[in-house]
Write a structure and sequence with these properties.
about 150 residues, Jelly Rolls, 5-stranded antiparallel sheet, mainly beta
Length: about 150
């Protein structure tokens, strides 16, 4: 859930608004984007794929997800994702809230790996590996999102 190349996140419900129970984030991500492999020590994530095609990786398992799919990423699971379509739109619920604080200040430039690891650690997240590459090759036949 850290800002990486290809992500745009919008906070819909903050922990302050939900009394710390949940944060709701809408993410728009482009082909090939995703975060590094990581583990949360404090919160669970529920990711609903609104549009596009995404591959999730959870505890060594590959899960292909299309629009309408939901993935539960429990606290302590090692996970990441990779966008397979030209774009994807995700609704991410984080509970309890708190992780969204990492998304409030957009970086002025892409962070170095060391900066990403340090920022993640402050949020109780351990970076355990690199981001995954998409399995699909993007071509003109890949469906486009409708705006």
């Amino acid at each position: 859930m850290f800002a990486t190349h290809g992500h745009h996140a919008r906070l819909l419900v903050s922990g302050q608004e939900s009394l710390g129970r949940v944060a709701v984030i809408e993410m728009n991500a482009s082909y090939g984007s995703g975060g590094p492999l990581h583990v949360h020590s404090r919160e669970d994530e529920l990711v609903y794929v609104l549009e596009g095609s995404v591959t999730f990786y959870r505890d060594g398992e590959r899960i292909d997800a299309e629009a309408g799919s939901v993935q539960f990423l429990p606290c302590g699971s090692e996970h990441t994702f990779s966008v397979e379509s030209s774009e994807a739109r995700l609704l991410v619920l984080v509970f309890p809230a708190g992780l969204e604080a990492a998304l409030t200040e957009p970086p002025t430039s892409p962070p170095s790996f060391e900066q990403l690891v340090a920022t993640a650690a402050l949020a109780g997240v351990s970076i355990t590996g690199p981001a995954r590459q998409p399995h699909a090759t993007l071509d003109s036949s890949t469906p486009q999102l409708i705006s």
